[in-house]
Amino acid sequence: MIKTDKLCFSYSSNAVLRDVDFQAPEGVLVSVLGPNGVGKTTFFRCLLGFLRPTSGSVEINGKDVCAYTKRQLSKQIAYIPQSYNPVFNHTVMDSVLMGLTSSLGLFEQPGKTEEEKALKALEELGIAELAGRGSMKISGGERQLMLIARALVQDAKILIMDEPTANLDYGNSYRVMQKISCLREDGYTVIFSTHNPDQALRWADRVFALSDGQVLADGPADSAINEQVLKKLYSVDVAVNTVRAGNDQYRVCTPFGE
User: Fold this and answer.
1) Contact 20, 4 (CB under 8 A)
2) Cβ(191)–Cβ(46) under 8 Å?
3) Which of 81, 171, 175, 200 could form a disulfide with 31 if both were Cys (CB 3.0 to 4.6 A apart)?
4) How far apart are CA 180 and CA 175, in angstroms?
5) Sign, CA torsion 185/122/158/137
6) In 139-213, where do the E strands start and end?
7) What is the second-level CATH architecture of the domain 1-76+156-220?
């Protein structure tokens, strides 16, 4: 559904991305790993069409991202930021309906059909009971799910999430990732960045690691995340071990040394 071919991007003479090849088919959860300043945000901005590549290409469903109008692109791909601090106490329902802005006319208001669509998105994420609550009066985890619901009403099947649990506590992080994981079962392609390799190991189908603007690792999470890759990414020794929880086994990362 989305791919890049030898994607390069530079800010003036500063090369940020170099020959990045990436591909994500329908219904997969892809985790993007890399330290701060490695080019993850620039990579996302190229995927979203916010930045035009210096060279190479980004394609969505076989069409160059730059060939889409803004309205057409909003039906293909949606962005969920890592945090959202509302200025006004809009209800959760109204906040979700804002995701329909690009599909409505200039002076058109959401009607019953749009409200039913927004409520369905809230139900899918398990927060329908919050529809009438003010967005300032809900938890960080609930607000993050609200942002995901806002993206879902766009009808875009590709979701880009920038560190979706960065500002959440341990329990809310787990609950949000559970909901995100369920989206692939509905055919969504989800690409999310994280600084937590355990999160990538637990939830991602594939891992895409960037180092110095280039692809360091790309493949199934179990094989793409190893001690050598993590050492290269974060300049710290890391042991990757298997633990049992309930009836399942999971791989976890433990940093060690000075």
Assistant:
1) yes
2) no
3) 200
4) 9
5) negative
6) 158-162, 189-193, 206-211
7) 3-Layer(aba) Sandwich (3.40)
